[in-house]
Amino acid sequence: LKHAKRSHTQSLLIDRSTAMPRTKQTSRKAPAAAPRRSAVKKTKEVNPLFQARPKHFHIGGDLKPKMDLTRYVRWPRYIRTQRQKKVMLNRLKLPGPIAQFRQTLDKNLASELFKMAMKYRPETHKEKNERLQKIAQMRAEGREAPAKKPYYVKFGLNHVTSLIESKKAQLVVIAHDVEPFEVVCWLPALCRKMDIPYVIVKGKARLGSVVHLKTCSSMCFCDIRTEDKQAFKNLVQIARTNYLERPIKH
Asked: pLDDT (tens digit, 9 = 90+) per residue, 140-190?
């Protein structure tokens, strides 16, 4: 038995000696980071004449910078009405008699028309008094005074309407931005009925500048001098083609 135990213990020792040695588990470490270069701080040269003065917006301090305060403004009623009207006209489909007021005379033709109108600009009260005094003086001296009045454009809605109805008007000029609109919306229909050419131009203020007023809704030419008849004939033909003979569209 003793011999058997010894042989068994010897075999165990041999097996242990021949076994592979255990390896130690080493944790992989990241390589060390490169040392950072020391950042060189740039020193800004300060001019002693110009020193930084921070602003303070408290009461009695610096003024605040300008801001766009459009959204906070309560606009006057007439401005709100203008903007609402523009939005409404863009969204709605307008009937033909109203839609034609958007089709104004183009810039070149309008400039020619107003050049012609400035030649027939009505006289002021002062000029009229001077003309009448001159005529009275000529008659007192026994000389012949001019019997005919000078040719001027006629203005004023009632006056223009009566001239159209009596077929004395040769060309009618209507402003496109008259307020309220119902004042002049029927005038093109009257011109069509009486077969009198008409044009629609931009700006009641521009018409007013011709007749010495702030604004003017309409004016018309009745009598034309001989030297201007050819140019006026061209304007009348354009008015007939663009407005009178053109079908009204929505």
From this structure: 888 887 777 889 999 999 999 999 999 999 999 999 999 888 899 999 999
Closest CA to 229 of 172, 171, 177: 171
Q: Are 213 and 147 in contact (CB under 8 A)?
A: no
Please give the average per-residue pLDDT across 194-207, as a whole number. 94
pTM score, whole prediction: 0.66
Q: Is the pLDDT of residue 116 over 80?
A: yes
Q: Alpha-carbon distance 211 to 154, whole Å?
A: 9
Burial group, residue 100, by CB count within 10 angstroms (0-12, 13-18, 19+)? buried
Cα angle value 10/15/17 (rounded, 5°): 95
Indicate whether 113 pLDDT > 70: yes
Q: Which of 163, 150, 75 has the alpha carbon at shortest distance from 119?
A: 150
User: Distances in Å between the alpha carbon of 97 and those of 43, 69, 73, 184, 187?
Assistant: 76, 40, 36, 10, 10
For 69, counting Cβ atoms within 10 Å of its Cβ (0-12 exposed, 13-18 middle, 19+ buried), the class is exposed
Going by pLDDT thresholds of 50, 70 and 90, the confidence category of residue 2 is: very low
Q: What is the pLDDT of residue 8?
A: 56
Which phi and psi (to 5°) does residue 171 adopt? -150, 130
